[in-house]
Specification:
Shape: globular
Helix content: 25-40%
Distance between the termini: 53 Å
Mean pLDDT: 92
Structural class: alpha/beta
Strand content: 25-35%
Number of helices: 13
CATH superfamily of the largest domain: P-loop containing nucleotide triphosphate hydrolases
CATH class of the largest domain: Alpha Beta
């Protein structure tokens, strides 16, 4: 059988810093290309859920994450080729500034990712209160590493036609890099900020999120030279991937809390579970009366449970079903916001809201980050998901504070080699078959994660089926 190859045009969209406007530019371009009938596959560089969610909403396709710290070069290349194959256009939104990484040399930066994939860059520059200096910044980015290809510039925060004219002329005469579009100074911020990022699209509601995407599509159609952007994109030829065979041996059912409170899930993580043979059941913790029957495991991702604390607290029956499931031994893997939900309560704006009570932890919220950046942990204690000695790379981003906890750090399963963790440079609260931690994991860079969750689900399924076959009472499942 002949192999089918396709041609996909590719761009990386980068900025000079965080907040430069690359998210607006990326979502606007993806939405405008989609309006033209293009099949867009979006990617997000770095550990990020929120920008990825907006890109997915704009493209009408899942967004995939590419991260040089969490993933090897081989895994990045394979993932990019696999998901970009068959698309008309692949769009990668960078993070932070173009050359910003974890070292002074820019290790694991957007520039490094562009070099790994050999792709051109559209550079978004905030032009507030500047004119020719914009040309100097573009020139500096181009000359700092001559291997990096800056194909075009998008000018953000343009105040007037005169401002645009002067900046365009300076860039043309001093750099020769084409200006491919502008973003005018907007009267109202389309993406209001929370903490260090934009508000997730799930909190807008479908209608408002759709209106925001449509507004940005119209902005790009008016102010971007979309045809030039397409011509400047790198044409890449990919072989269409063969259909993967699902491992039917697992055949387990895993619940996933997914709603306005728990939004932070990598598409790769969900796919890894499905490819391992799991059926995923999405559950809304805000309105479901209780957990569905027949679950073999539960995955609770991160998010902003503090913004939905009243609704979570009022859903008493659901909270109680989580607590009962944990007591009975259901494998539960919880990250960050999921960890908080398994605590006893959270204090938000001087009001305290009860949570599931699986762990005796009282949380509150700080105005400053309590953990932010890449992490690495070593597993030191037996648990249902990771073998002892396993080392995992991940990331953490939290404003929550552990106000009180009836435990000590030595009881935690994971030692933090890098990052903050839960307490005392450790992470991983345990109870029965529950493991809750602040660290987020990206499945392609940590294959042990999906393997462990699937194995725990399979073990629980066998135990549950054995007890049911023996007609033992339900409380016999309790550990």
């Amino acid at each position: 059988m002949d192999r089918v190859t396709t041609c996909t045009r590719c761009h990386v969209i980068a900025g000079l810093s965080g907040g430069s406007g690359k998210s607006v530019a990326s979502v606007a371009l993806a939405a405008a290309l989609r309006r033209r009938g293009q099949h867009i596959v979006p990617f997000k560089k770095g550990p990020d859920y929120i920008d990825a969610g907006w890109l997915s909403a704009a493209a009408g396709q899942p967004c995939w994450n590419l991260d040089p710290f969490l993933m090897s070069t081989e895994v990045i290349t394979t993932s990019f080729q696999h998901h970009a194959a068959g698309a008309d256009f692949a769009l990668i939104e960078g993070n932070r500034g173009l050359y910003d990484g974890v070292t002074a040399e820019g290790e694991f930066s957007t520039a490094e990712l562009a070099l790994v994939l050999d792709l051109p860059i559209l550079l978004v520059v905030n032009c507030s209160k500047t004119t020719r200096t914009v040309a100097a910044m573009v020139l500096g980015c181009r000359e700092l590493d001559k291997r990096v290809r800056i194909a075009g510039v998008i000018l953000n925060q343009i105040a007037s036609p005169r401002h645009e004219q002067v900046v365009r002329q300076a860039i043309a005469q001093d750099t020769g890099v084409p200006v491919v579009g502008i973003i005018p100074r907007l009267a109202e911020d389309i993406f209001p900020m929370r903490h260090l990022g934009v508000i997730p699209h799930q909190e807008y509601g479908d209608a408002n999120a759709g209106a925001a995407v449509n507004h940005l599509a119209a902005l790009a159609e008016e102010h971007f030279d979309v045809e030039l952007i397409i011509r400047l994109a790198e044409p890449r030829h990919f072989e269409l991937p063969s259909v993967s065979q699902v491992n039917s041996n697992a055949n387990v059912t895993i619940g996933v809390l997914r709603d306005a409170a728990f939004q932070f899930y990598y598409q790769e993580n969900l796919d890894a579970l499905r490819e391992g043979g799991a059926e995923l059941v999405m559950i809304n913790a805000l309105n479901a009366e209780r957990l569905p029957e027949g679950l073999d495991a539960l995955y609770i991702g991160g998010g902003f449970p503090e913004t939905s604390a009243p609704q979570l607290a009022n859903n008493v029956s659901f909270r109680e079903s989580i607590r009962q499931a944990a007591e009975q031994g259901l494998p539960i893997y919880a990250e960050c916001g999921g960890l908080i939900f398994l605590g006893s309560s959270i204090v938000v704006a001087e009001s305290e809201y009860p949570l599931t009570g699986v762990f005796p932890v009282r949380f509150s919220m700080s105005k400053k980050p309590q953990g932010h950046g890449y992490t690495m942990f070593t597993v030191e204690q037996e648990n249902p998901f990771y073998p002892v000695g396993t080392q995992i790379k991940g990331h953490e981003f939290r404003y929550s504070v552990v106000e009180s906890w009836e435990g000590n750090a030595e009881e935690l399963a994971l030692r933090m080699e890098r990052g903050t963790g839960f307490q005392g440079k450790r992470d991983g609260l345990q109870k029965n078959n529950v493991l809750a931690l602040y660290t987020h994991v990206l499945a392609p860079g940590a294959p042990q994660w999906a393997k462990g969750l699937l194995a725990a689900a399979g073990n629980w399924q066998k135990r549950r089926q054995t007890l049911l076959a023996e007609n033992l009472p339900k409380n016999a499942l309790e550990t």
